[in-house]
Amino acid sequence: xxxxxxxxxxxxxxxxxxxxxxxxxxxxxxxxxxxxxxxxxxxxxxxxxxxxxxxxxxxxxxxxxxxxxxxxxxxxxxxxxxxxxxxxxxxxxxxxxxxxxxxxxxxxxxxxxxxxxxxxxxxxxxxxxxxxxxxxxxxxxxxxxxxxxxxxxxxxxxxxxxxxxxxxxxxxxxxxxxxxxxxxxxxxxxxxxxxxxxxxxxxxxxxxxxxxxxxxxxxxxxxxxxxxxxxxxxxxxxxxxxxxxxxxxxxxxx
Length: 254
Ligand SMILES: [Zn+2]
Known about the structure:
This protein has one domain (14-252): P1 Nuclease. 54% of the residues lie in helices and 4% in strands. The protein has 11 helices and 3 strands; from the N terminus they run H-H-H-H-H-H-E-E-H-H-H-H-E-H. Zinc ion is lined by residues 10-11, 53-54, 67, 120, 124.
């Protein structure tokens, strides 16, 4: 996906990032929670800083590519040399900031930024269109009708569909009930690269694979069947991101 600062493509909207951060916070060990609070400083929580990386993106243009990785939609596997040649994609940055957050040589401000980026990017990489490229600017180029509103595929997956599932607090209650310790453990297995491949597979199978076809001369219309499938996937991806973020922070902030 080719993104520039003027495109409204930001990964999950604040609602999605908040949910992921709140799920992770609910699964932190007391040690990791205390370290995170110390690094972020008074008045901040994982949720309150979860969209910071999007807010600074316009002013810090170099950070724009950090939010995604372009795995071609017709490829089955991730290839870091092909898909992240400059080392500035979301997967490389997650590894960088995982180290920076506990780097004894880093300043307090650098550790805080590292944690804020980490929380955000773990969310972004679970938005399937942030791990896929179909030569359409990550779905921004796919115009569609979204229940009477004109939108595009990327925006619908960032926030449109999630916004229709429900309000954040109601969703959080439901998600946290379903995200059992057993499930969190199961999902946390694997590498960051394997998680990206899972996101990519979802883009292949559902985001593009099940997208209704546009009629001749017309545009795609999102229908109830697609929304049903997408909602299940989005719920899953958000729970996975929350669980994996918690396990990662528990292993890192000790
Ligand atoms: Zn983002």
